[in-house]
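Inputs:
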Amino acid sequence: METALPVFIYVTLAILFGLLVMAVTGFLGPKKPSPEKLAPYECGIQEIAAPKRRFPVKYLLTGMLFIAFDIEIVSFYPLAILLHQLKLFGLLELLVFMAVLMVGYVYVWRKGAFTWE
Amino acid sequence: MHLTLEHVLVLGAVLFCIGLYGAITKRNAIAVLMSIEIMLNAVNITMVGFSYFDTVKLYSQHLTGQIFAIFIITVAAAEAAVALAMVIAIYRKRATVDVGEIDMMKW
Amino acid sequence: MFQLSDLYLLAPEISLVLLALVVMVIDLFTKRRIVIATVSLVGLIVPVGFVIAQAVTYTGPRTALFRMLVVDQYSLFFRVIFLIIAAFMVLASYNYLGKYIKAEGEFYVLMLFSVVGMMLMASTGELISIYIALELTSFPLYAMAGLLRSSTKSSEAALKYVLLGAMSSAILLYGFALLYGLTGTTDLQGIAQSFKSFGNGNLMVIVADVLIIAGFGFKISAVPFHMWAPDIYEGAPTPATAFFSVGSKAAGFAALIRILVYGGLWQADLTPLIVVLGVVAVLTLILGNFAAAVQTNIKRMMAYSSIAQAGYILVGVVATLTMSQKNHTAASSGIAAVLFFILVYVVTNLGAFSGIIALSNLTGGEKIEDFRGLWHRSPLLTVCTSLCLLSLAGIPPVAGFFSKVFIFTAAWQLGQPWLVIIALLCSIVSIVYYGRIIKVMFFDAPRKEERLVAPISLSTTITLATAALLVLTVIVTVVLDAANPAALSLFASLLGK
């Protein structure tokens, strides 16, 4: 229980600070509401299209490829721990893994998945 | 009160059931996918719990469960990518991701 | 530790991965389908050569790569089956791809990667590798289901497949997690060792087993988990459907039997589990056969037929589990029958599907009535397809008859007479719906008179499949001689070799 005490103090302080900042801006800040400002996605500019419209999926392809390539790096954690024991075998495994991943990367690249439009 | 294996296992089981319930009842394909991720993470918690507390000393190989969890995480990411690709393919054609509306063939 | 000979044991899989990568690179530089297909087919010679070399020089079960890889007769048997599937698929899909799918190279690459996963599923002895192999098998299948980009049905099939597949993997993994917690290891031999000391009626063991069976139940389309099969079979491109129906099922059974038997789970008292599996088998048989009888779309009918076939295989598995504790050698006869059944099923179903691909390509329809009078329009295709369907129904002269007889006698001797009786009654129903197609093709009046000429690759495939079927019929005993030690080798880890 005692080890958790600093965490409790820290969390309490963080919450209090957040509340304090919100309260201070509420007191000090100027308030001039207008319909544009009260609208969702308020930024002072009249909205051009309905906010429910979804954005195009071009970026999603890049995003999905990123997920796949990015998370593979996690596989290196166990290897990194054991690399000294595995010696050359471990290094070779790493290289084979990278090579297979590279073929996939080149494939995706050449197929034009990184070019938008 | 200390954290014991029971706590971890109960958390894992509860999360797994929540995920399973969501995967079966949710109508939005993305929500189903998220429920499945919850199930997988429940498995991860269970694995890491067993690995950390290591109840069976017989083959004491502490790290196996954690390595398993790492593999599950990587594979789940690839799974999410594949599933999202399918969702986009459907969305382009039907403009919906509602599993209930995707019904050209009966289930 | 790692030795260079480990690489030799893994060589079939390694060479197949390399082949898939080569095909992938070739696909970047050429759009000519013939090049890609030829490279795939010729390249398959290398893994086939390695498997043959390993089989010829076989001296006993060997493990490699920290006991993750197990090369015994069982894994060699399944490696052969999966390589047969790969070769057939390259041939059977060639024309369909040119006609309907733009991404020809991708189809071959995905198919080859999936076959690597299937081979690994049969030959790994460790839970993490089984999981990775399973997903390596499944991901390409999901993508293959959605390859018909113009068809909404195909995208739908892919989405359903990926969501249900991911859910089943999660359920399976929870079972693995419990198994790991119970035994403290993911090594199947280690699990088998520690199950020796487990008392009867351990609830956790039963729960873990049920979760694992539920997880694999999706892959093999056993009944409470079969809902995906008809939709996905109907929506996916037909060659991909053929691939699902044989590959996914054979690989699912390979891994399930490996875990249940090689992992020694039967050493704990499994009476509740046997009851559960028995009920699943009965439901699978009844629903598969009766639902198939009322279908009008031939791909949907084949989907239910493949569910029914999974039921027969399950009967063999249940029978083996019933006897395992008392008598290993007797129990292994159930697995041997299952292995023989799977081999025959793979060849037959591939033949039937290539026939269906060819005939529905030529007639432009997938309804059973579209097949009317094909005997007058394309005799060779009709005869070959009918032979395959007869074998699926288990009519005497063809191999399918023997595979059913072996399963039924094994199950009867191992103490499951009721299952056998139900399975027999169900196969009578199956004669009705397979027979209906044959009747429509031979005796109904054709819609048009003009002759249909199948493309050379498809007619080669179906002739080869039918020839293989007839050869299997002749060499039944030879195959059984291979299947028996393969089945027994699963028990080897517990019998002190």
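Residues 76-110 of chain A form the longest helix (35 residues). Flag for discussion at group meeting.
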